[in-house]
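Ticket reopened. Same input as before:
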Amino acid sequence: MIKLTRINSTNLNAPKIFIIPGGPGLSSLTLRSLDILNRSFELIYLDFPGTNDNPYTGKKSFNEISTELANLIQQESGIKYILGHSFGGFLAADVMINRLVSGLVCISTPFSQQSLFEVKNNYSGKMTPELLQAESDWLVNGDDLSFAKWLSEYGNLYFKKSSGKELILRDKVSSLFFKDNRSDALNKDLMLPFLQKTKKRKIFICGTNDELLPPNILHKDAELGGFDFFEIDNASHFVTYDQPEKVASLIEEQLLRL
Amino acid sequence: MKKIMQTFALLLAFGASMQVLMSYASEQKEFSPDEEAEKIISLIERRNELNTYDEALNDELVKQTLRYLKSIKAENSLKKMLEKREFLSVDGHGEPGI
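Engineering reply: fixed in the latest deploy. New output:
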C-alpha cells in the first residue's frame, strides 16, 4: 500500500499535486521543504512500502507500483498534477503517459542510459573516504541504518547545503525498497518518446550545481521527453532542499501560469 | 539457448559484486557443460513454478550459471560483459541512490 500524507492548501479549490520521493527507498520527509507549495496546491506526499513508517510488504514490480499509484490518483477529484524527484520521476512520468494528470514535474530524473552512466561515473569519480567507508558498511550490513548513512555521505553529489546530511540521516528510509527496486531505473529511456507525445504541461527542473547529474546531461533527456527545462542556481541534486522557494515559484509559474 | 540467455540476464540483475562473481567463476573444479546446463534449466523451472523472489534460489542460479560459463571457458567474456555500460550494476560498487 502506498501511504498518503495530505497537506491542505490555504487556497480554496486548489489543484492537487502528488509528490513522489526518490532513492528509491527515501521517504517523502526528504521533500517536505515543498510544504510551502500549499499556498497554491493541496499537497499529497506519497510513501512507498518500507518508508516513513509504512510497513514493507515484499517486492513489487515497477508496473505493480505504478498501477497502484494510478488507482490512487483516479480516486482523487479535481485538477491533478504530479511531481517526482529523481527515481520518483519514473513513476510520475508513467502516470503522465497514462494521461491521469494535467501536468508533470520531474526533478533531476535520469531517464537515459547515458544519465545513469553519469550517475555511476560521478559517484565513483567524486568518492570521498567517508563515502567509501559508508558504502562499505552498507554493502556489509544492508540495513536501513547503513543505507541512510551511506546516502547521507553523498555530500555535494546531493546537496549544496551541508545540513542535507542531517535530512537524510533523519529520514525513515527503506533499504529493502532500494534493493528490490533500484534496477527499475534501467531502460526508462523508453518512456521518453511516449512523454514526447503527451501534449500536457511537462517541466524538468535540475540544479546547476548537481554533481551527481549535471544539467547538460539531464537537458538531453528533457528534450527527448518534450519537457520545458529549467536550471536552478546554487542547487545540487536535491534542488527542492537547496532552493525550495525558487522551485516552488517556478512550479507555480509553470503549472498555474501565475 | 534461450533459457541460458534468460539465466544470464537474471544473473546480471542480481546485483552481486564483480569480486563475488569472479570468485565463483574461478573455482578450480572442472565442470561439464551438459550437466551444468541441465541444472540451470531445472533451477529456472523451479523458479517459474515459484513465480516469486527467492534469494536462495537466485544465489543457486548465479552459482550454476557461473559454473556453466566456466565449463565453456567463457570467463573472459564474462569479465568483458561486466565492464559494459549496460551492466553497470555489477561493477563492484553499490548502485548509487538517485
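DSSP finds five helices and no strands in chain B. The helical segments of chain B are 2-13, 18-25, 33-50, 55-71, 75-82. Please confirm and we'll close it.
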